[in-house]
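Let us practice reading a record.
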Amino acid sequence: MTGATDTLRVISALLETASVPYMVVGSFAAMSYGVARNTQDVDIVIDPTAESLEVFLAAVDPDKFYVDADTARDALQRRSMFNLIDMANGWKVDLVVRKARPFSIEEMKRRGIRTIADVDVSTASAEDVVIAKLEWAKQGESERQLRDVAEIVRVHSNNLDRGYVAKWVAALELGKEWSRVEALID
């Protein structure tokens, strides 16, 4: 995990210095909530302005990280994603521009600081990791995503805001996936 720790530390510092709001999501966020499993990339949702994205891109050391600036600018315009690769250890960072939909806006507002791989970083809430993983499961029929959700729910059963989860499960039409998770928990 040393390579991931180094990559996460550098990228989060660059984002903070550039004043780019961000949050770690995906498997790394799930790990911070008690789901241990292997992954080869770090997923980070970002919410830059055109100016803050330029500051971030200018700060990335091209001798240490590969990033295609034009792809990053295009991702901002299309609200999609681009990659950054740590050339020292091969870790890939997926930088996903925050979507303009209500859930994504709320998810970004609810982020908080958590320690992941010995680095204090802005991280999606447990509830929002659950919802995002349910969406990934719906898109890709992934049992792994559903097992991650079940583990987060098990570990945080006493403090998970189930009303918030239910609201977004309904709004994003994730009922089938949520039912499958509930079956895994029982």
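A brief commentary: Strands lie at 22-25, 41-46, 65-67, 81-86, 92-97, 112-116, 119-123.
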